[in-house]
Amino acid sequence: MASSTYLHGHHESVLAAHRRRTAENSCAYLLDHLHRGATVLDVGCGPGTITVDLARIVAPGTVVALDAEIGMLQATAALAAERQLDNVTVVLADAMALPWPDATFDIVHLHQVLQHVPDPRALLRECRRVCRPGGIVAARDADYAGFLWSPLDPDLDRWQTLYEQVARALGGEPDAGRYLLEWASDAGFREVIASASTWVFATSAERAWWGESWARRALQSGFATTALATQLAHRDELDAISRAWLRWAHAPTGWLLVPHGEILARR
């Protein structure tokens, strides 16, 4: 991650959700462009679940996992060791000033990163710099204004509005998914292929983990801390949002859609 205040923080409720991410459910748009022997930079690797999947696919190629949080790198290294992968390296660094020369990597991957940085175009230019000619910078970001759910609930409407306010207070763009094509074009890539995909949560198990995760995050994560510190919300509002997520989780026909924009940008 680039040096900025990460909206979600690293509370266990956040990390538990992030650990469910895999290459299959979070970067399927990239998989056909990976090949054995490729060198990959995973920017903002988090707990490393996508990283290790990429490492398995490109082996004996290498994957470098980059994050600004040492705990995330430790988690990634531990997961790679658990999976018996010896082609993962972890690096503590600021993504806005990548510590590699030009044209180092075949693939630079970012998942849910650009929405959190104050200057996504600058980050994409830096990723382009370390990508080899003909290589790919791949990015995927959610679009929070496009979230849809049922049953409707005014407290979840409040959550959506508040999330966007908190993200922008931290200098981010919560609707990043719709801007990826624009940002990559402005960053100087010669070819940008834009696509989209969704996460849909509709089973009782899916509702339970997402709803219970956000019920906790509404009260304990970086989102909650910033909402209170900036006086964008009061504790009673966060309590109401937390209860709303539990109501949704327990609704027998509860449904949630999370839209994502995606880009494959060629150097």
From TrEMBL:
Q: Which stretches make up the Methyltransferase type domain?
A: 41-138
Q: Which residues form the signal peptide?
A: none
Can you name this protein?
A: Methyltransferase type 11
Gene3D superfamilies named among the record's database cross-references: Vaccinia Virus protein VP39 (3.40.50.150)
Q: PANTHER family, from UniProt? A: 2-METHOXY-6-POLYPRENYL-1,4-BENZOQUINOL METHYLASE, MITOCHONDRIAL, METHYLTRANSFERASE
A GO term for molecular function: methyltransferase activity
Q: Which GO biological process entries does UniProt record here?
A: methylation
Q: Name one Pfam family in it.
A: Methyltransf_11
Can the keyword Transferase be found in this entry's annotation? yes
Q: Which UniProt keywords apply?
A: Methyltransferase, Transferase
Record lineage: Bacteria, Bacillati, Actinomycetota, Acidimicrobiia, Acidimicrobiales
